[in-house]
Amino acid sequence: MGIFNNRNGSENGYRKPARYSAFDLFRRGLSRADWPRAWRKHDLRPSYDVVVVGGGVHGLATAYYLAANHGITDVAVLEKGYIGSGGSGRNTAIIRSNYLTPEGVRFYDRSVKLYETLSADLNFNAMFAQRGHLTLAHNDGSLRTMRWRAEVNKLEGVNSEVIGPDEIKRLVPYIDTSEDVRYPILGALYHPPGGIIRHDAVVWGYARGADAYGAHIHQNTEVTGIDVVDGRVGGVKTNRGDIATRVVVNCTAGWATLISGMAGVRMPISTFPLQAAVTEPVRPFLDPVIVSGTLHVYVSQTDRGELVFGASVDPFTSYSMRGTLEFTEGLAGHVLELMPSLSRMRVLRQWAGLCDMTPDFSPIMGTTPVAGFLIDVGWGTYGFKAGPVSGETMAELIATGKTPELIAPFGLDRFERGDLMGEKGAAAVGH
Q1: In this predicted structure, what is the pLDDT of residue 283?
Q2: Where would I find the H helices in 229-313?
Q3: What CATH number belongs to 128-193+271-355?
């Protein structure tokens, strides 16, 4: 690591993404002209400088920043399905940085900053709407935690404050802030920079950008093994053939332990399903994202008017991604406790994704005992919001051979040292 040359002059060099004027878009729409592919299809080469396993936001961002920031373009991104078919396409795309630990706040705040300029950087509209984020407190203990988080956020320069029921009611007129309810709202942690983004647009934008720099994106390419010789990565085996490489980056979700196990690296990770649901579209009425840890529910409204609901992970480990009636009934009941006026809205569909949970609710990033095998895993329910900063820092680690300060606290060796990064107070249902 840290020995790569700038390869932008190679045959796979930079191919600037196309820019279209309003007239171009109108003309192509009327003529039904063929649009150029956002990213190209390539034959699998026998070797690459870097192989990234996982074609979600983390893997694609890593490939993009390797090229954009460090000139490393001989990169393959391997995805066993289609781009964004895993956690990146099954999340609810909430963006925030109001975490509990100083290390977590700094890390996620950098990601928010990258998201704020992402559409311009990628020349692709990611539709980031910073409408604010409310984490409700229903008891004195929760309110103390919100004040704790607010002070940590302020010390790190992040805009967060605790507000009372009157201000909550002003921000969300349809929420029930009366005292004559089962779970009265005593206050909330208000985080104005938080919001939602179009998750598929983020994936497509990073894929388009990485491809323009020359990275190869291989869909329907499943990793079946990782070659390790004398404690160092030598290549990967796939269903399409073998690849020689000296750097492999595990950017998977749900299958992180399986991929790491292929390299002989054990992970303190348990995998749980996480379910979500969406309603029929209605006229926009909800600006902030609303989260209640006590009720195990969060809700936001998309630009198209649908309400997106979610909860905490299922109470059992599983690789199942099927929705359950129990989840829908419980979720609907808790949402109606917050906003009873939604009782007549219809749920259109529900889905589930896989969440890799670590003992301290923080990710695992950086090097491993196997030289050349790097990890960006263990994201639990909050991986999508960290996509940009994860790609940026993992690319820096690959290019320089030095662990960036932002991800140093999240190393695998922290579990051996007992130096855990406890984020449960801000990540258990915060999304």
Answers
A1: 95
A2: 256-262
A3: 3.30.9.10
Helices and strands per DSSP (H, E), number in the chain:
12, 19
Cβ contacts of 297-301, under 8 Å, gap ≥ 24: 297/331, 297/334, 297/335, 297/338, 297/429, 298/92, 298/94, 298/429, 298/430, 298/431, 299/335, 299/338, 299/339, 300/92, 300/94, 300/196
More confident residue, 298 or 29: 298
pLDDT band at 10 (very low <50, low <70, confident <90, very high): very low
Half-sphere exposure of residue 255, counting CA atoms within 13 Å on the CB side? 17
What is the rounded CA–CA span in Å between residue 238 and residue 247? 15
Beta-carbon contacts of residue 241 (< 8 Å; ≥ 6 apart): 44, 46
Q: Are 52 and 398 in contact (CB under 8 A)?
A: no
Contact 347, 279 (CB under 8 A): yes
Alpha-carbon separation of residue 232 from 1, 228, 229 (angstroms): 12, 5, 5
What mean pLDDT value characterizes the chain?
Answer: 92
* Dihedral of the alpha carbons of 27, 29, 32, 35, in degrees to the nearest 10: 90
Phi and psi torsions of 178, nearest 5°: -70, 165
pLDDT tens digits, 339-380: 999 999 999 999 999 999 999 989 999 999 999 999 999 999
Written as one string, the DSSP assignment of 82-124 is STT-SGGGTS--EE----SSHHHHHHHHHHHHHHHTHHHHHTS
**Is residue 170's pLDDT more than 90?**
yes
Task: Give mean pLDDT, residues 246-260.
Answer: 97
SS3 readout for 280-296: CCCCCCCCCEEEECCCC
279: closest CA among 295, 296, 302, 298? 302
The tokens for 310 are 């979610």
Domain ranges of the chain: 41-91+199-269+360-427, 128-193+271-355
Which residue's structure tokens are 């979610």? 310
CATH of 41-91+199-269+360-427, one of 3.30.70.1170, 2.40.30.200, 3.50.50.60, 3.40.50.720: 3.50.50.60
Q: For residue range 92-127, list pLDDT tens digits in order.
A: 999 999 999 999 999 999 999 999 999 999 999 999
Identify which of 150, 152, 162, 170 has the alpha carbon closest to the alpha carbon of residue 186.
162
Based on the number of CB atoms within 10 Å of its own CB, is 273 exposed (0-12), middle (13-18) or buried (19 or more)? buried
Does pLDDT of 256 surpass 80?
Answer: yes
